[in-house]
Each structure stands twice: as C-alpha cells, then as structure tokens.
Specification:
The complex is a heterodimer.
Chain A: E1 5-7, E2 10-13, E3 19-24, E4 31-37, E5 44-50, E6 53-57, E7 64-68, E8 74-78, E9 87-94, E10 102-103, E11 107-111
Parallel strand pairs in A: 2-11
Antiparallel strand pairs in A: 1-3, 3-8, 4-5, 4-9, 5-6, 7-8, 9-10, 9-11
Chain B: E1 3-5, E2 10-14, E3 19-21, E4 24-26, E5 33-39, E6 46-52, E7 60-61, E8 64-69, E9 74-79, E10 88-95, E11 101-102, E12 106-111
Parallel strand pairs in B: 2-12
Antiparallel strand pairs in B: 1-4, 3-9, 5-6, 5-10, 7-8, 8-9, 10-11, 10-12
C-alpha cells in the first residue's frame, strides 16, 4: 500500500504570497493532521481534520487554514507568507480509532 | 497540554552496541499515548514504537524497546545491536487525543 504522499516536495515563495500544500492519506485513513517543523526543532501541530471537519487546531495564526476533501485528501493554505513560515510541513494520517499517526515525506517551504 | 523534554541533543554509539535515549513528559491526563519517531536525513518521520499509558508492560519492537516509568513520567528508548542505518534524529512524542506533542529531538550518530 502507498504511504502518505505530499506535494510539492520543495517550494520557494516570496513574502506576502500565498501557498497551498497538498496531502493524500494512506488508503483507509480518514484523519489528516498537519505539522510545521522548523529547522532544529520537533514538529508543531497545526490542524487535524476528520471527515472534512476540523477536529483540532494548534497555536497558529488565522493565516493558516486547511480543508479536507471527500476522498480524505487535504490542503494546507498559508496566506501573507512571512520569512518565519519557512519550514518543513509534514502531513500525517491515521485511522479514526487510533492514536498512531503516519507521516508523509514533507514539503520544504522557503520564503524569501 | 503536554510538554515533552529530550535532554540529550546528541548521542553517539558504536555499531553493535546499545544506546538509550531519554525522554520525560508532563501531562495532567490519565489516558495518553507515547511514541518514538525516527527522522533520517531523508526527513520522513518513521514510527518506531508506541506505548499506551495504561499498559504496565514495556513495549518492544525487534531491537527497539522502551523503559516506561509512569510515576516518574519517563519514557526512554533503548536501541540494541545498533546499526549504521539507525543514525537519525529521534523524537519522543505524547498525545491524549489528536495532536502529537514532540520533544526537540536527539541526534544519534552511529560509528563503525
């Protein structure tokens, strides 16, 4: 079975621009979570979606938003990019009844 | 909210030897789960092992085992018969629901 997939792999944006990152969960997984990993740190929780509803949100500004589609794939959107948004963005999927999360390879976002 | 602390930024082990990575956590919840994730230079987070707080028995997965001390809120990872492929960042994480809370990680170097 395919694992969690994310696109694009790398992305370079300019301050003030908008970005959309995409994630496809493992087949059968209905929950998708997003994390931000700044260099040298552990991942920080941004959102979790289950059945297209936001289940939880971390301490991130409203510039960050996400949505989940009927096929359980997800998009993370970030508006008005700041230099500090440069990070590895990780997507993870899980079964509804499980606490285990399985991660994709991430999208490396660089804001210049 | 939970906090996770990994006090060893870097550790080194010789091939075939055993190494223990430390992790302490703090949570007010009685029901929680603990995980160790491995992040090699390829950056994909890989689930290594998990422990349910309600289980007394320490989890084991092949060469990986944990020492779970619930009263002390300690959750260390022991890697036996270390291999070159074990070299990576190791993150300890805790969850009571949907969000994984990660420590800052320990970089493990494996020398021949």
């Amino acid at each position: 079975d395919a694992g969690v997939t994310q696109s694009p792999t790398h992305l370079i944006k300019t301050r003030g621009q908008h970005v959309t990152l995409r994630c496809s969960p493992i087949s059968g997984h209905k929950s998708v979570s997003w994390y931000q990993q700044v260099l040298g740190q552990g991942p920080q929780f941004i959102f979790q979606y289950y059945e297209k509803e936001e289940r939880g949100r971390g301490n991130f500004p409203d510039r960050f938003s996400a949505r989940q589609f009927p096929n359980y794939s997800s998009e993370l959107n970030v508006n008005a990019l700041l230099l500090g948004d440069s990070a590895l963005y990780l997507c993870a999927s899980s079964l509804p009844t499980s606490y285990e999360q399985y991660f994709g390879p991430g999208t490396r976002l660089t804001v210049t | 909210a939970q906090t996770v602390t990994q006090s060893q930024p870097e550790m080194s082990v010789q091939e075939a030897e055993t190494v223990t990575l430390s992790c302490t956590y703090d949570t007010s919840e009685s029901d929680y789960y603990l995980f160790w994730y491995k992040q090699p230079p390829s950056r994909q987070m890989i689930l290594v092992i998990r422990q349910e707080a309600y289980k007394q028995q320490n989890a084991t997965e092949n060469r990986f085992s944990v020492n779970f001390q619930k009263a002390a809120k300690s959750f260390s990872l022991k890697i036996s018969d270390s291999q070159l492929g074990d070299a990576a960042m190791y993150f300890c994480a805790c969850t009571t629901g949907y969000a994984l809370n990660f420590g800052k990680g320990t970089s493990l170097l494996v020398t021949p």
